[in-house]
Amino acid sequence: ELARWVRETSSPGTPRVVLGDLNCVAGSEPRGAARFLGCDLEALQRAPRPTWDPATNCWACEEQPKAIDRILLDARSARRLRCAVELAFTEPSSDGTPLSDHYGLRV
């Protein structure tokens, strides 16, 4: 369903960027999904840090820390865009709880 939506809403010449919680580590299963979505490359953090970490986030439980959130792009866009990816939203909310079970990625 997502692949259909990406194809239907993409315009020729417009960068194709798909971001999200793909629940898999780099180099695993989403390679096929990325190609299906029309994305060839992945923007990576300069210093990889987990986006899911039970040691620092009480909503992320019973698993090992993992970097499972992804930013996928098509090759044409990657040549045109310059970006750096960093971990984001790691600070807790005003009541001390994390904003989500995942930390975000900032481009």
Strand content: 15-25%
Number of strands: 5
Low-confidence stretches: none
Approximate shape: elongated
Specify Rg, calculated over alpha carbons: 15 Å
Task: Give a concise summary.
This protein is of the alpha+beta class. Helices cover about 20% and strands about 15% of the residues.
Give an account of the 3D structure:
By secondary structure, the chain is α+β, with helices and mostly antiparallel strands. 20% of the residues lie in helices and 17% in strands. It has helices at 2-9, 30-36, 75-80; strands at 17-21, 41-42, 69-73, 86-88, 104-106. A three-stranded antiparallel β-sheet has the order 1-3-2.
Keywords:
single chain; 107 residues; alpha+beta; two-stranded antiparallel sheet; 5 strands; 20% helix; 17% strand
List the helices and strands and how they pair.
Layout: H1 2-9, E1 17-21, H2 30-36, E2 41-42, E3 69-73, H3 75-80, E4 86-88, E5 104-106
Antiparallel strand pairs: 1-3, 2-3, 4-5
